[in-house]
Amino acid sequence: MFAVESLEKPKGPSLLESWSSNERMRHISPIEVLRQRLDGTMRRRIETLLASCGSARDLPESVRIQMELELRELCRAIDRVCETARSSRPAGHAPSEISARIGHAMQNSVASLNAVDGQLYGRRYPFQTFDRSRAEPLSGSMLVVGEHIRRLTRFVRTIDPDIDEKLLAGLVVQASPVDDQTRKPIA
User: Fold this and answer.
1) How many CB atoms lie under 10 A from the CB of residue 71?
2) What local confidence, expressed as pLDDT, does residue 20 receive?
3) Which pLDDT tens digits describe the chain residue by residue (187 residues)?
4) Which of 31, 109, 110, 112 is deepest in the core (most CB within 10 A)?
5) Distances from the Cα of 130 to the Cαs of 20, 23, 75, 76, 139, in angstroms?
6) How far is 141 from 77, CA to CA, in rounded Å?
7) Closest Cα partner for 82 from 63, 101, 61, 57?
8) Which one, of 161, 155, 122, 163, lies nearest residue 139 by Cα?
9) Quick check: 81 and 112 in contact, CB under 8 A?
10) Which residues contact 54 (CB under 8 A, 6 or more apart)?
């Protein structure tokens, strides 16, 4: 106790912030959106790109090496999402084949995103902790995964010119333009 400190506790509200009462950061997507994006949209795109990469067997050695490098960078970016989101270590070791390794990294990343508390995610840390929220690095690592998917898509276009059609399959579902009850065209 210093001589200049008062012995009485200050009356009134505390000047310290609590994490749960801080506002959400507007530039951070909710964790549910990140889960759906990684497990749904990005997973489907990656599986389609891997199928096109695996079907191209008669490639020159330089193209195969470049494709392997792009896939390794994508796997490293997915692992970074897992490392940023997780609070514990992932289970098991990653397989050696690159497509199985990417699948393993996706599973670990989705499991790590599922473990994140949705109520606290995206809130600013209290100023007295001098800490940054994990939401900003996690959001940034998801952007990096998206960039690596874009690079891999551009690379796979040189191998498989029909990749855009495969990636966009199921996006638009054509329904019957005629009402079955009245057999009149829908205007």
Assistant:
1) 21
2) 61
3) 455 555 566 555 655 556 566 677 777 888 899 999 999 999 999 999 999 988 777 788 888 889 899 999 999 999 999 998 886 666 667 777 888 999 999 999 999 999 888 777 777 665 555 566 778 889 999 999 999 999 999 999 988 889 999 998 877 776 666 556 666 655 5
4) 109
5) 16, 17, 32, 29, 20
6) 7
7) 101
8) 122
9) yes
10) 99
> Cα separation of 89 and 156, whole Å?
33
Which tokens go with 117?
């508390």
From the list 126, 116, 119, the residue with the least C-alpha distance to 19 is 126
DSSP codes, 10-38: PPSS-S---GGGSPBPTTS--HHHHHHII
Token pair for residue 46? Answer: 């990656």
